[in-house]
Specification:
Length: 231
């Protein structure tokens, strides 16, 4: 699992880094003394696990978790027990009190791996079905994957567009991107995810789906071309 170490204490980071290097399942992708730096990292590159301190200047570890739309798995590592309840309310995997030991860290990492496997199975189960339910205007509405043309981000909502219907869901595009079938959909723009099989044509920096013209960003173009199976 790819992980980030976030702790404002230099010695604590060093001790934790040396422990993590002994755990084959973990790969350190970054190490930060400030939560805001970890936040900026996670906006560009996803990781599987945060090894996160709570009390840090500027932004606390708990505030970092709350600021992320789709936080990775989190193991809180802190000198106090005061934040345990808040941590578990934010669905952290485990809560370790300093000074930590390698066996205790291993126990927490094993738990994180179990959580990751469980999430993966849930996603596979969802993809195996031809439909899902979305909460729209206080109702759970069934939507078939085959009917979706594209998803469009609009403020705090994502609009699910099907032939003849536009259904707003209170979510972010990033959150929905993790739940939709990867083999059917692809992101083409920071505000759009499209169903590849619905594309009529691609011309320069836009695609056509039914009567809709959708912009395509350069950063997503190569992945789009690959999924379109261009000869």
């Amino acid at each position: 699992m790819k992980c980030l170490i976030v702790d404002d204490n230099t010695m604590a980071r060093t001790v934790l880094r040396n422990m993590v290097k002994q755990i084959r399942e973990l790969e350190i992708c970054g190490e930060y003394a400030a939560a805001i730096d970890a936040f900026n990292h996670l906006q560009k590159e996803s990781v599987d696990l945060l090894l996160l301190d709570v009390e840090m200047p500027g932004m606390s570890g708990l505030e970092l978790i709350e600021s992320l739309t789709n936080p990775p798995l989190v193991i809180l590592i802190t000198a106090k027990t005061d934040y345990a309840v808040q941590g578990f309310q934010l669905q952290v995997v485990d809560y370790l009190v300093k000074p930590i030991t390698l066996p205790r860290l291993l126990q927490a990492v094993n738990r994180a791996e179990e959580w990751k496997l469980s999430d993966s199975k849930s996603i596979q189960s969802a993809e195996s079905k031809n439909y899902f339910f979305a909460r729209i205007n206080n109702q759970l509405i069934r939507i078939d994957w085959d009917d979706i043309l594209f998803l469009q981000a609009m403020g705090d909502y994502v609009v699910i567009v099907t032939p003849g219907k536009k259904m707003p869901v209170h979510s972010t595009l990033k959150a929905l991107e993790k739940k939709i079938p990867e083999n059917r959909f692809t992101r083409v723009h920071r505000s759009y995810i499209v169903q590849v099989s619905k594309i009529v044509n691609l011309e320069e920096n836009s695609i056509q789906i039914n009567e809709h013209l959708i912009p395509v960003s350069e950063r997503y173009k190569s992945e789009l071309m690959e999924k379109m199976n261009v000869l």
